[in-house]
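Review this today:
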Amino acid sequence: MASTAFITLKLYATELNLFKTTSSDEQSFHRERLTTRIYIFSLMSLLIIVGIVAGSVVRTANEIEYIPSQSKFVYLVKRYPSTLKCPCSKTAIGLTIYDAPKLALALIQVVLLM
């Protein structure tokens, strides 16, 4: 069964002629079949090359990290130095309950020095 299918496929491939003309000489038939084989080979090669190129293209993934920790931010800066964008317009300093009196004292000292 598989043997006859292979033979039929082989016969079809050898007899395939996409560029049939009205001329009836043997040289034209041979040239047309050769042209058909070159065309099919070129088409298959082009499809394989396009598939390989499309599969190997690097795609950029945009990902937003809204509130990254400091360690996460440092990791992102090291990993993506040329493509990392920080759209922050202002930076904030996080203060704990223990830092607030020190900051108030520092501000009072600055005001008194002026």
Notes: Helices lie at 2-15, 26-56, 70-79, 99-113. Residues 2-56 form one domain.
